[in-house]
Design goal:
single chain; alpha/beta; FAD/NAD(P)-binding domain; six-stranded mixed β-sheet; four-stranded parallel β-sheet; about 30% helix; elongated; binds flavin-adenine dinucleotide
Length: about 425
């Protein structure tokens, strides 16, 4: 099979995240041409985004240029552009490129791994005051907001306004909300405790709001309870069973109660990218494409959908949207393509092997769960640290993050406490004289 005479089969991969890059790497051994299309030029290690948002790591420490990751893969080409649709009849991907406008890229096989974006459950107006965290730009925006809150409070003469500036609300008690809450608590109570003269960062109020009955709903209830206790011991107020009803410039309304807070961060929900619409394919209630046992799309065996945007049931339950699922799906597509191109029997249906879930709460404490094995405490924290370092995409990132963590662990300091954008509103406010 070849698109043009004499050429190798062409596999187009859309998305350079865990699924897409996993597929590209696994296809290295196969005699195919690859074009990987992504709207950004980097592979982002999302599990550590919260560390960029809380100033522990620099953006460049958790993102790897896709070209660099694939540079030794001579048959892999990288295209920077945003996919806007699929013409499955003509086997072409429609891509908006920065320099050449819309172009069409033909394929023999197509692998789609475009992931998800945050969702405000029908309350898109919340986004203005409660940024989500999905991209590097999001994390940098959150970091600006968090650090700016302390700077604004330092210069604020009014007590109530100052308290609102030092109140942080995290909406969503999943792993990201839990990890963010722990990290902000340490930033305020450890890293910055000596740095201000008019405010005491240790007085910072941090609320973690979860609509469900417990934080870390995907973990065993015992681990949820222990994590909630740990957060409480760090000064985080954990509010479960409460949905956020309103978010505006002044704060949030939770369970009918008004909380003045100038920094609200959304970690609550996601929605898949519009792949089901592009392909006119069957989708689950969340909008993820229902894929077949080999991860192909019903009626289009040459198109595969993997990662967060795929709906795949195993043992009667949908697989979770985690990096391991996406990576294993990418490797499975490579095995399927190898079998097809070599006219071998197809591999057995995709089966996810759960290697465990983890969440970390500040320094020294994490939880781990795999089947009936449950760990919590310092040992889980060391495991969490090692695993996260090892899964970074490039060796230089592994070294850099490891050294940063060791230094931060012993010094209590952070890697990147930089505000790189001053909120426009602040610049417009009248000048006020501060008397100390
Ligand atoms: C803050 C956060 C923390 C997380 N923590 C963990 C964790 O601790 N452990 C864990 O296992 N999982 C975690 N996850 C989930 C994990 O990151 C995802 O399950 C995983 O990234 C899914 O891989 P994917 O390939 O499906 O999508 P992604 O990795 O999201 O990659 C999608 C790629 O597609 C590109 N793209 C999207 N749309 C287009 C388009 N139209 N055209 C071109 N390119 C496009 C994007 O730029 C991106 O590079 C976390 C997620 C987030 C957001």
């Amino acid at each position: 099979m070849a698109t043009e005479a004499g050429l190798l089969p062409h596999v187009v991969i859309v998305g350079g995240g865990f699924g897409g890059l996993g597929a590209a790497r696994a296809l290295r051994r196969l005699n195919v041409r690859i074009t990987l299309i992504d709207k950004t030029n980097h592979h982002l290690f999302q599990p550590l985004l919260y560390q960029v948002a809380t100033a522990m790591l620099m953006p460049g420490q958790i993102a790897a240029p896709i070209r660099q990751v694939l540079s030794s893969h001579r048959r892999a080409n990288v295209l920077l552009g945003e996919v806007e649709g699929i013409d499955s009849e003509n086997r072409e991907v429609i891509v908006k490129t920065p320099e050449h406008g819309a172009i069409r890229v033909g394929y023999d096989f197509l692998v789609i791994a475009t992931g998800v974006q945050h969702s405000y459950f029908g309350h898109d107006e919340f986004e203005r005051n409660a940024p989500g965290m999905k991209t590097m730009a999001d994390a940098t925006k959150v970091r600006n907001k968090v650090l700016h809150a302390f700077e604004a409070a330092e210069g604020e003469p009014d007590r109530a306004a100052r308290e609102a500036m030092l109140t942080f609300v995290l909406v969503g008690g999943g792993p990201t909300g839990v990890e963010m809450a722990g990290a902000i608590a340490e930033l305020a109570r450890l890293t910055m405790k000596e740095d201000f003269r008019r405010i005491d960062p240790q007085q910072t109020r941090i609320l973690l709001v979860e609509a469900g009955p417990r934080v870390l709903g995907g973990f065993h209830p015992d681990l949820s309870t222990k994590v909630a206790q740990r957060l409480t011991s760090m000064g985080v107020e954990v509010l479960t069973g409460h949905a956020v009803e309103q978010i505006d410039d002044e704060g949030v309304t939770v369970g009918g109660e008004r909380i003045a807070a100038r920094t609200v961060i959304w970690t609550a929900g996601v929605t898949p990218s519009p792949v089901a619409r592009w392909l006119n394919a069957p989708a689950d209630r969340a909008g993820r494409v229902r894929v077949r046992y080999d991860l192909s799309v019903p009626g289009a065996p040459e198109i595969f959908v993997i990662g967060d945007v795929a709906a795949y049931e195993q043992d009667g339950r949908p697989l979770p949207g985690v990096a391991q699922v996406a990576m294993q799906m990418g490797a499975h597509v490579a095995r399927t393509l190898a079998a097809r191109l070599h006219n071998d029997a197809p591999p057995p249906p995709f089966h996810y092997v759960d290697k465990g879930s983890m969440a970390v709460v500040g320094r020294n404490y994490a939880v781990f769960q795999r089947g009936d094995i449950r760990l919590e405490g310092y040992f889980a924290f060391v495991m969490w640290s090692l695993i996260h370092v090892l899964f970074l995409a490039l060796p230089n990132l592994r070294v850099s993050v490891f050294l940063q963590w060791v230094w931060s662990y012993f010094s209590g300091q952070r890697g990147s406490r930089l505000i790189v954008e001053t909120p426009a509103a602040a610049a417009e406010e009248p000048v006020e004289v501060i008397r100390s």
